[in-house]
Amino acid sequence: MHNSVKKMTGKFYNATKREVFITPKNFLDLIENYKYFFSIAKNQYDLSIKKYKKGVEIMNNTSKTAKELVEEVKKLTPIVQQKMKEAEEQSKTADAAEKKANLVLETQKEEKAKVEKMVEEASAIETNVKVELAKAGEVRKKAEKSVANLKDADVTEVKGFNVKKLAEKPGIESVLKAIMMLLTGKPD
Q1: What is the mean pLDDT of the chain?
Q2: How far apart are CA 129 and CA 122, in angstroms?
Q3: What is d(CA 121, CA 113) in angstroms, rounded to the nearest whole number?
Q4: What is the pLDDT of residues 48-94, one digit of tens each?
Q5: End-to-end Cα spacing for the chain
Q6: 166 pLDDT tier (thresholds 50, 70, 90)
Q7: Cβ contacts of 115 within 8 Å, gap of 6 or more
Q8: Exposed (0-12), middle (13-18) or buried (19+): which is 107, by Cβ within 10 Å?
Q9: Where do the structural domains in the chain lie, given as residue ranges?
Q10: What span, in angstroms and rounded, lies between the C-alpha atoms of 102 and 100?
Q11: What contacts 166, CB < 8 A, 6 or more positions away?
């Protein structure tokens, strides 16, 4: 078939003075495939360009935002430093107050221990006093009984005692003062 087409193109040239070229089918298929794959590659290239443009736009926006944030951080840095100083001062004040409170608490504990000890001592003294009062009560009852049994002759005998001799004998003066207390409520 190729040869017959060549002959016809020659006749066509002689009649019209126009040349006709014969292109093989596989070459035409090659061109068609090239166009197809080129369009696919071009679409991928266009998508990549759009993607990269979008990425560059995002990066530019991010860069702008980062610069704004850096400026804001620069503006806020003195405020943050001031707040940190205030926090440190408050911390020191709180530490001092805590130390003072701990000292007061320790003093209170010591005072409480002293008071508890004093209460224990007072309780022991109270117990001793009660015991002594009970004994004194018994002695008083005996003394009152003895005073009730005193006779005029006994009182006259006591009046006859020599004061100087009484001072020499231990215990007699105490006994006489006790008797006076029972009788008059006064030791003299």
Answers
A1: 85
A2: 10
A3: 12
A4: 999 999 999 999 999 999 999 999 999 989 988 999 999 999 998 98
A5: 172
A6: low
A7: none
A8: exposed
A9: 2-149, 150-188
A10: 5
A11: 172, 173, 176
